[in-house]
Amino acid sequence: MNIQWQSSNTLTIITYRVIIMYEIEYYTKRSGQQPVAEWIESLDKNFRNVIRDKIEMLANYGLRLINTEMLKNLSGKDKDFYELRGSQCRIGTFYDRDHNRFVLLHGWLKKKQKQVQDIEKARSLLHEYLFTQEG
Questions:
Q1: pTM metric for this prediction
Q2: Could you give the dihedral angle defined by the CA atoms of residues 34, 36, 41 and 42, in that order, rounded to the nearest 10 degrees?
Q3: Which residues pair with 91 in a beta bridge?
Q4: What domains does the chain contain, in order, with CATH numbers?
Q5: Strand partners, 101
Q6: CA separation for the pair 1, 14 (Å, rounded)
Q7: pLDDT, tens digit, 9 for 90 and up, residues 43-59
């Protein structure tokens, strides 16, 4: 928390600036695999840098990025399911409100309209994640 005090003869102003950081979790399957972490490592250096910058922005700005070019809501019945975007890189992510964290589920490179399978893969991993949180 950053607190600034300003005083004059008759007026005191107190300004609070609270910085909210969001936790980022790489979803880990029961096998120990982390699909997004492994995918990022497989990318070439330029794409790797782009997506790491986007993940850092997600950690810093979180919910404020919703409905920008960087974080789009993925339609469907799943609440808080988003697509993190950076250049051609995409990551299916879930905002876990109970823990104030974004869970990175599945990454892919956008190639024209051929994303349906990747979004469904991310959705499948979301359901796995939610199931493990219940038990």
A1: 0.82
A2: 110
A3: 84, 107
A4: 22-134 (3.30.2310.20)
A5: 23, 96
A6: 12
A7: 999 999 999 999 999 99
